[in-house]
């Protein structure tokens, strides 16, 4: 299925509630007094790094790993002014981030989970920087020509 076969819409109420539940689970790792730290990109990344490097989540705990992806996505959205959307394709419907006014889509929910499940070491700050660089490159230069070496979707 090509990007043109995808249906991109605002998050449904149900999907937004699910994403918020995942966000709250991660935010809950801060003490009640420190929950305001979630508003900072750096604190989001620091929290993700702590959870991942401390191995608090098993590779089989997909929901929790994808919850980390929501927080990773929140940091990307905050840094790059991305918007949460719902993307439906032949595989189903998933939350994603879109660079406004473009077809550039980022799928943060699996950005961390697939790496943990594969046993990869993750440097959250490097991963974040790579995602930001990639999205900014695509926004500046437009998506590659069909069949080119790069995809317009980042994950």
Structural commentary:
It is a single chain. With 155 residues, the chain is α+β, with helices and mostly antiparallel strands. It has one domain: Four Helix Bundle (Hemerythrin (Met), subunit A), CATH 1.20.120. It is 48% helix and 14% strand. A five-stranded mixed beta sheet has the order 1-2-3-4-5, covered by helices on one side. Strand 3 (92-98) and strand 4 (105-106) form a beta hairpin. Helix 1 crosses helix 3 (62-80), helix 2 runs antiparallel to helix 3 and helix 3 packs across helix 5. It is globular. 26% of the residues are buried. The model is unreliable at 147-153 (pLDDT under 50).
Distance between the termini: 17 Å
Over the alpha carbons, how many angstroms does the gyration radius reach? 15 Å
In terms of structural class, how would the helical and strand content be classed?
A: alpha+beta
Shape estimate: globular
Query: How many distinct folded domains?
Result: 1
**For the residues shown, what is the average pLDDT?**
90
**Total helix count?**
5
SSE run: EHHHEEEHHE
Number of strands: 5
In short:
This protein is an alpha+beta fold and 155 residues long. The protein has helices at 13-27, 41-53, 62-80, 109-117, 124-141; strands at residues 7-10, 83-89, 92-98, 105-106, 153-154.
């Amino acid at each position: 299925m090509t990007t043109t076969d995808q249906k991109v819409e605002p998050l449904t109420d149900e999907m937004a509630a699910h994403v918020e539940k995942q966000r709250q689970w991660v935010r809950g790792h801060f003490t009640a007094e420190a929950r305001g730290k979630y508003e900072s990109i750096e604190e989001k990344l620091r929290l993700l790094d702590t959870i991942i490097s401390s191995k608090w989540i098993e590779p089989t705990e997909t929901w929790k790993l994808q919850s980390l992806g929501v927080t990773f996505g929140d940091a990307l959205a905050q840094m790059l002014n991305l918007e949460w959307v719902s993307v439906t394709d032949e595989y189903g419907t998933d939350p994603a981030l879109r660079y406004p006014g473009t077809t550039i889509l980022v799928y943060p929910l699996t950005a961390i989970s697939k790496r943990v499940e594969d046993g990869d070491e993750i440097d959250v700050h490097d991963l974040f920087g790579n995602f930001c660089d990639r999205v900014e490159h695509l926004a500046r230069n437009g998506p590659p020509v069909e069949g080119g070496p790069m995809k317009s979707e980042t994950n």
